[in-house]
Amino acid sequence: MRIDRFDHIVLTVADVDASVRFYTSVLGMREHTFDHGRKALEFGSSKINLHQLGHEVEPHARRPTPGSADLCLIVDQPVDEVVAELERRGVAIEIGPVDRTGAQGPLVSVYIRDPDQNLVELSNYRT
């Protein structure tokens, strides 16, 4: 077997609406409603499905818990522009910009937290 890529991930969240607002307004993802009202966040060729804590869709993680994820997202614009945009929006930067290593090489990254305190790394590959 050879895995090609991720299609989607699932985040268990305390408040679906708060998560949708954060990921759409701060990170520019698109809200998608499917399957009788379920919510997802779309970006590029991927998506994040949202499960409301206590109402997870079967099957699900053994211990679905808000705030347990650590995501790395590659952004189109330079990280210094991302930092400026986050500052304009009043989003606290936890760490960064810092050098990191991604799946395809060296990154420059900043870290923020979503409403559930998941760690969200916003990165560019160094050229």
In short:
Keywords: Dioxygenase, Metal-binding, Oxidoreductase. With about 130 residues, this protein is an alpha/beta fold.
Descriptive terms for the model:
single chain; 127 residues; alpha/beta; 2,3-Dihydroxybiphenyl 1,2-Dioxygenase, domain 1; four-stranded mixed β-sheet; 2 helices; 42% strand; globular; Glyoxalase_1_CS; lactoylglutathione lyase activity; oxidoreductase
Structural write-up:
- With 127 residues, this protein is of the alpha/beta class.
- It has a single domain, classed as 2,3-Dihydroxybiphenyl 1,2-Dioxygenase, domain 1.
- It has two helices and eight strands, in the order βαββββαβββ.
- The strands form two sheets. It has a four-stranded mixed sheet, with helices on one face. Strands 5-8-7-6 form a four-stranded mixed sheet, covered by helices on one side.
- A hairpin with a 3-residue loop joins strand 2 (30-34) and strand 3.
- One of its GO terms (molecular function) is dioxygenase activity.
- It holds the Pfam family Glyoxalase.
- This is Catechol 2,3-dioxygenase.
The geometry reads as globular
Q: Roughly what percent helix?
A: 10-25%
Estimate the mean pLDDT confidence. Answer: 96
Largest sheet descriptor:
4 strands, mixed
Helix-and-strand structural type: alpha/beta
Q: What's the CATH first level?
A: Alpha Beta
Oligomer: single chain
Give the topology string: H per helix, E per strand.
EHEEEEHEEE
Q: CATH superfamily, called what?
A: 2,3-Dihydroxybiphenyl 1,2-Dioxygenase, domain 1
In percent terms, what proportion of residues is strand?
35-45%
